[in-house]
Specification:
Number of strands: 7
CATH architecture: 2-Layer Sandwich
Strand order of the largest sheet: 1-7-6-5-4-3-2
CATH superfamily: START domain
Order of helices and strands: EHHEEEEEEH
Shape: globular
Radius of gyration: 15 Å
Number of domains: 1
Helix content: 25-40%
Distance between the termini: 42 Å
CATH topology: Alpha-D-Glucose-1,6-Bisphosphate, Chain A, domain 4
């Protein structure tokens, strides 16, 4: 099966700490992406959405999966993997945060493979993942204008 790649860049007219807080808070990210997302296990080191935290995502009723945060560097980086119950495998998401002269920038990358050997399924899943991310990041950027 072919590996799929998503690479989205968004600038924000807001400090990196505000953008980091918004995008690494599981509940707030769920609202931005318009998907049911909730934290089911707290992270370590005083960051409930940080290293080791697990979020459950239910894009449609009765079809949920879990993601686990594997890297958490405040105001710089968050990485996660799908840890349970998804139609994709080898899924790794990465949000890199940086300061700019106008505020901040996020580069959100995801790589994954379809679990099922169905032609074109990878591309369909890519669009289903990428579209709400682009819309959500754009909406958040607009909220800072």
């Amino acid at each position: 099966m072919t590996k799929q790649y998503i690479d989205v860049m968004q600038t924000f007219n807001a400090p990196v700490d505000r953008v980091f807080e918004a995008l690494t808070d599981h509940g707030q990210l769920g609202k931005l992406l318009k998907v049911n997302m909730r934290r089911i296990s707290d992270g370590e080191g005083g960051y409930v959405n940080g290293l080791g935290s697990v979020r459950k995502i239910t894009p449609v009723p009765f079809l949920g999966f879990e993601e686990k945060v594997i890297t958490f560097e405040p105001n710089q980086l968050m990485e996660y993997i799908v840890s349970k119950g998804s139609p994709i495998k080898n899924h790794k998401g990465r949000m890199e945060f940086s300061e700019t002269t106008e505020g901040s920038r996020v580069r959100y990358t995801i790589e994954f493979e379809s679990r099922l050997p169905v032609p074109f399924l990878g591309g369909i899943l890519k669009a289903a993942i990428e579209t709400p991310i682009k819309k959500g990041l754009s909406s958040l950027a607009d909220s800072y204008r």
